[in-house]
Amino acid sequence: MKPFLVTCAFAASMLAAPPIVIQNATVLTVTKGTFTGSILIRDGKIVEAGEKILVPADAKIIDATGQFAMPGIIDCHSHIAADSINEGSVSVSSMVGIEDVLNPEDIAIYRALAGGVTVANVLHGSANSIGGKCTVIKLRWGKDAHDMIFEGSMPGIKFALGENPKRAGNPSGQRIGAGNVPPRYPATRMGVEDVIRQAFTDAKAYQQSWKEYNEKVAAGEQALPPRRDLKLEPLVEVLEGKRLVHSHCYRADEILMLLRVADDFGFKIRTLQHVLEGYKVAKEIAAHGAGASTFSDWWSYKVEAYDAIPFNAAIMTRKGVIVSLNSDSAELMRHLNDEAAKTMKYGGLDETEALSLITINPARQLMLDKRVGSIEPGKDADITIFDKHPLSNFAKVEKVFVDGQLYFDRNNDLAERAAREVEKKKMTDKEKEQQRRTAPGAQRRPAA
Amino acid sequence: MRSLAFAVLFICPLLAAQDDSFLIRGATVHPVASAEIQNGSVLVRDGKIAGVGRNLAAPKGTRIVEGKGLHVYPGMIDSGTQLGLAEIGSVRESVDTGEIGKFDPQLRAEVAINPSSEHIPVTRANGITAVITLPMAAGGDGGGRRGGGAGSIITGQAALVHLDGWTWEEMDVKKSAAMAMRFPSIISGGGRFGGGDLPPDIAARFSFTESKKNYETELRELKEFFEEARRYQKAKSANLKGFKTDLKFEAMLPVLEGKEPLVVMASRERAIHDAVQFADQQKVKVIIADPRELGKMGPELKARNISAILGPTLALPLHEDDPYDAPYALPGQFYKAGVKFAFGTFNNEFSRNLPYQAATAVAFGLPYEEALKAVTLNPAQIWGVSEKMGSIEEGKSADLMITDGDPLEAKTQVKQLYIKGKTVDLTNKHTRLYEKYLNRP
User: How do the residues of chain A divide into helix, strand and coil, expressed in percent and rounded to 5?
Assistant: First the structure.
């Protein structure tokens, strides 16, 4: 009974939370132009954004004079907040999912917030042709794993082509199966195609068996249900358009291969991830309707990245592909705005196009553009405030709101540092004291 | 010989005029060593800067470069790369960044620089005209991981090269700008409260005790190596009978004589402290490379006039509980401590992003002018070539970039580039592929 009351009281206080008005900011809406004015936030949503708005009497005012408000940055490819990334033992691992290993205490979440990111697509790794299920999170730092999940977001699944799935179990530079490592199929791009075709052939048959069963049941006939297959179920969801495919890929040939496999089985590739040679097959990608989520300027770290160019995002944009920039890295994730600025240099995107790559475009790719990705009335109040224009390399994040709640504030962060140092010292002193008391002379190996 | 040179000059005055003599006028000139000049001019003659100022007059026939609306800056210097030593990070055959062996002072990075590396034109297209290429023990593109050398302490001679030339000889600025080394450190998880320099999964392989033993062994070996080198130096100068040339010790002589600095990779405060102590004991000159924290070392570095090469600003904090902006704020801390520094990327792929490392530091407290100096004049001073490069001053090599804005901003375009007064082609593998595929029917 008591917890219920507490919950009620908490909910009531939430409802009663005063509206917030961000005032005098340069507002980069991304979809509706740029103006100097205000944003009204109520109950976690953007209610109004304009040059002049009526400020409710009870509103909490955030003065952002001289500062820049933009939609919270969305990273379409991240591995933060996950305790494990790759189930690398099999070539099709669609039975596993990131949702089961979400770690809400990963410090990378806070650091990404401090870089202006509010939403991340947390993906399985790229060791397998068909990897695990993915989860979209909001960076609600301090909340538990369940509350981090972006409610209502489409589930996804990771595919991977090229060197990574080839290499798993077949270490590079060695004969396949050399040493003690048993070879794992596939070891070539040919095999990667086969693995995906075989998996979807199985998924179709599985889908059919359920269809037949359901028809029999509907007709009042006696029938035994098919045995549930947790590996094939997500693939059936892909076939039925209920799960988004995010596929790691590099080379033009493998990109085209995957598009054609999907065409043959009648499903869509939602996003091509990395897609560093996407610029070579941009028109095929656009025709299929796949989005492309790439790096700004990574190249040459492996053979399949040797033809990567920083103009990739611009060419694909010009050829009609919806493009986003992602991080795939807890570090790069902290400055995706800098990465977006590079597309102005390399390929001449304009400011709005550049900002779209890290806001509305990834929102579209994740089918979340009704909720996030721009500053528009009705959308979630996920807003990042920079001290300078976010496409300037001299800009830094001042405040970040998720669902209208302040999750990062640089001033608070700075103010709390001294107290945190004191707290840390207390704990280290205590630990030292304990070490002195227990097991004299014993060499304690720190827990790995 | 002299008459021949005259003859050539006389016969090809036009060619000479087109090649490395010209006047940039009407541009905003940023000499770095002095205040910016609006509507300024830079006169270049025979590859060298012959004048900087307003309304400079050029000899008749001098090629004019109109700089209206544009900016002129000195070319940038990346003080830590493996440019030319590695092509594709994952391909062992293309990586020559670190040798086998603990003490390899005889190795010369310069002779292994591939002047045809695709990385060179890609990097210079963003205004970087010279780099330090150094053999490394760890870190960077495949350094030490795939090119061997993971356990090296003295890794070889760092070269300062221009990013233009048909051969490494033509690229050369300074063959042995410094002796590169990694300072031994305790590599482990570092206990519950300190993360190590290494990813936890690797660090966890070494227990603290093991790691400490390793560190002590390496430190002893390092001291012994220096002692041996000194005995060699004595033997050589005494012209002892039976003296045999040893290439390793021979390479150490300029270091022992204080003519060549040691550039020491030392990321943590403890390693920096050790390196400074070591330099004191050995009476050698050191430059600290890729420090990830300053701790209490500021006054000691300043008092000894020790410079630093700061690695990537855009990096993750060293420890889990460090402030989120610790790496961003680090250059500002070095500045406040009065320690001279330059930026290095310690990378190939991202060497072109050198100016953005500097820009982020500005966002977190480093004065803008200092950031610009740290990619131009400071590196020239630290590497001992400030009489030749690093700023737009009379007599220096005409390493210049003409831009449409601030080079520390990513959206700025580099419009023209000159190395030793020679126009440098800005096209590269990336621009070629761009043109080709943008125009794919």
Answer: 35, 20, 45
Fold type of domain B76-389: TIM Barrel (3.20.20)
Chain A residues within 8 A of B411 when measuring between CB atoms: 341, 344-345, 391
Nearest chain B residue to A396 by CA distance is: B363
- The predicted-structure confidence for A344-395, as pLDDT tens digits, reads as follows 999 999 999 999 999 999 999 999 999 999 999 999 999 999 999 999 999 9
Residue B151: predicted pLDDT: 77
Q: Which chain A positions have a beta carbon within 8 Å of B295's beta carbon?
A: none
Cα separations in angstroms, B381 against A264, B179, B258, B345: 63, 16, 16, 18
Q: Does residue B199 sit at the A interface (CB-CB below 8 Å)?
A: no
Model confidence at A441, pLDDT cuts 50, 70, 90, reads low
Contacts of B69 (CB under 8 A, 6+ apart): B404
Length, in residues, of chain A: 448
**DSSP letters along A128-185, please?**
SSEEEEEEEEE--TTS-HHHHB-TTPPPEEEEE-THHHHHTTS-TTS-TT-TTPPP-S
- Cα dihedral angle (A92, A98, A101, A105), rounded to 10 degrees? 150
Quick check: B208 contacting A, CB < 8 Å?
A: yes
Which CATH code is given to the segment(s) B1-74+390-441? 2.30.40.10
Name the packing angle between helices B208-237 and B269-282 (round to 10°).
Answer: 20
Closest CA to B367 of B324, B332, B402, B397: B332
CA-based torsion, A99, A102, A108, A111: positive or negative: positive
CA nearest neighbour of B167 among B227, B213, B126, B116: B116
Residue A44 CB neighbours (<10 A): 16
Residues 6+ apart with CB under 8 A from B432: none
Q: Per-domain residue ranges for chain B? A: 1-74+390-441, 76-389
Distance of CA A295 to the CA centre of its chain: 14
Domains of chain A in sequence order: 17-71+373-410 (2.30.40.10), 73-372 (3.20.20.140)
Q: A419: part of which helix (H) or strand (E)?
A: helix A410-437
**β-strand partners of B27:** B40
Residues of B in contact with A302 (CB under 8 A): 88-91
Residues 6+ apart with CB under 8 A from B277: none
For residues B8-16, average pLDDT: 44
Burial of A1 (0-12, 13-18, 19+ CB in 10 A): exposed
Token duo for residue B148? 């061997």
Q: How confident is the model at residue B150 (pLDDT cuts 50, 70, 90)?
A: low
**Selected residue with higher pLDDT from A398 and B10:** A398
Stated length of chain B: 441
Q: Is the pLDDT assigned to residue B1 strictly greater than 80? A: no
What average pLDDT does chain A have? Answer: 93
Integer-rounded Cα radius of gyration of chain B: 23
CB contacts of A107 in chain B (<8 Å) are: 320-321
pLDDT for residue A179:
59
The band of B186, judged by pLDDT with boundaries at 50, 70 and 90, is confident
**Long-range contacts of range A416-422, CB-CB < 8 Å, 24 or more positions apart?**
A417/B323, A420/B321
Answer whether B178 touches A (CB < 8 Å).
no
* Alpha-carbon gap, residue B228 to B189, rounded angstroms: 34
As a whole number, mean pLDDT of residues B50-76 equals 95
**Best mutation site among B348, B437, B438 for testing chain A: the one with the most A CBs within 10 Å?**
B437
Looking up tokens 């909001």, which residue turns up?
A138
Instruction: Give the Cα separation of A425 and A30 in Å (integer).
Output: 45
Phi and psi of B235, rounded to 5°? -60, -40
In percent, the amount of chain B with pLDDT more than 70 equals 88
Interface check for B114 against chain A (CB to CB < 8 A): the answer is no
Residue B286 β-bridge partners: B262
Instruction: Find out whether A323 and A293 touch, Cβ atoms under 8 Å.
Output: yes
